[in-house]
Amino acid sequence: MDNTSQILERSAELFAGQRLLLVNPPADSLTSELPADWHIWTWDYFVQQGLSSSLDEPHLSFSHLCPQVEELDGAILVMPKAIERAEYALAQMAPLLKAGCPLYVVGEKKGGVTRAEKLLAPYGSAIEKLDSARHCQLWRSVVQGEIEAFQLDDWQRSVRLEFSDQTVDLVSLPGVFSHGRLDEGSQLLLEEKAPLPAGKVLDFGCGAGVLATVLARRNPDSRFELVDVDAMALYCATQTLSQNDVQAQVYPSDGLSDVHGRFAAVVSNPPFHTGIRHDTSIAEAFFNEVTRNLLPGGELRIVANGFLKYPPLIETHIGSCRVLRENNRFKVYSAAAPG
Ligand SMILES: C[S@@+](CC[C@H](N)C(=O)[O-])C[C@H]1O[C@@H](n2cnc3c(N)ncnc32)[C@H](O)[C@@H]1O
What we know:
Layout: H1 3-10, H2 12-15, E1 19-23, H3 30-33, E2 37-42, H4 45-51, E3 60-62, E4 74-78, H5 83-93, E5 102-108, H6 116-120, E6 124-133, E7 136-143, E8 157-162, E9 167-172, H7 184-191, E10 199-204, H8 210-218, E11 222-228, H9 231-243, E12 249-252, E13 263-268, E14 273-274, E15 278-279, H10 281-290, E16 294-305, H11 310-317, E17 321-326, E18 330-336
Parallel strand pairs: 1-2, 1-4, 2-3, 4-5, 10-11, 10-13, 11-12, 13-16
Antiparallel strand pairs: 5-7, 6-7, 8-9, 14-15, 16-18, 17-18
Helix pairs in contact: 10-11
S-adenosylmethionine binds at residues 177-178, 183, 186, 205-207, 210-211, 227-230, 233, 253-255, 269, 271.
């Protein structure tokens, strides 16, 4: 079990037999091993897929919004990576709790749980650290009075982006990549005006949907599909497309797990993790798998930090890799699938 689940299990007497909302858990066995009436809210499709064999639909929600569970005894937030997303989640969780109910935050110390006291302050009193073990902490506050209802409009941001050929209204939520602005790498990819091949185009890791929106307008003979692992990104991408009158299909996928068929092109600003070393394993898995979703001669067009060693990976898995554009930080690469 994940460290955060282990620390919850150490306090099992607080949770056993209760009706609980558990938000952003890892995909592990906590909910099977600790007997409670669990209601899970996740925005991570990998977790949704992992827990769907042990929890049925009313108990497992994959969404940008918190399920409206009634008569809760308490709620637990597993600290997300982005602090703004913790604020967004707590603002939805707290109004579901009656006065006197506990609201918990658990997480890794290096993942920002030490900010729990500040995060919980708007929603209750008697805030205390209950446990600290396995590099994690468990915090609790007790909800006081009526908490203001959550309004999505207070959190959703819409910004107008000006491109040389069009204006795009981009909708985003806290914790969605490049919230409220255009990423410099995505901008460089969109400066490239070479047309995409006609037919189906996949926007992999679509975020708030900026790549597909701009490129769909420029390439009227292309039909876009957008995928992301994050429910908040999928919601924002759907909103961005509709605000800009672009028709496209949007659906969840962990990597290319739910992408079927072959595409004339795949465009992406692919995710990569930074740690002590730059981890290119996600990108490598993507380059390896994407060949089965490209038509013969189909184009892979991506943008990435210039220091990432993507060209040899692209050449191993897809084919000869050209630099379409570059600046001092990013490079836009294009490769054609064999065929
Ligand atoms: C660098 S951002 C690019 C977002 C958007 N295309 C843009 O240009 O603004 C990468 C995106 O990949 C998504 N992502 C991360 N891991 C993923 C996975 N395993 N499967 C699908 N999408 C993933 C993230 O949620 C994020 O939205």
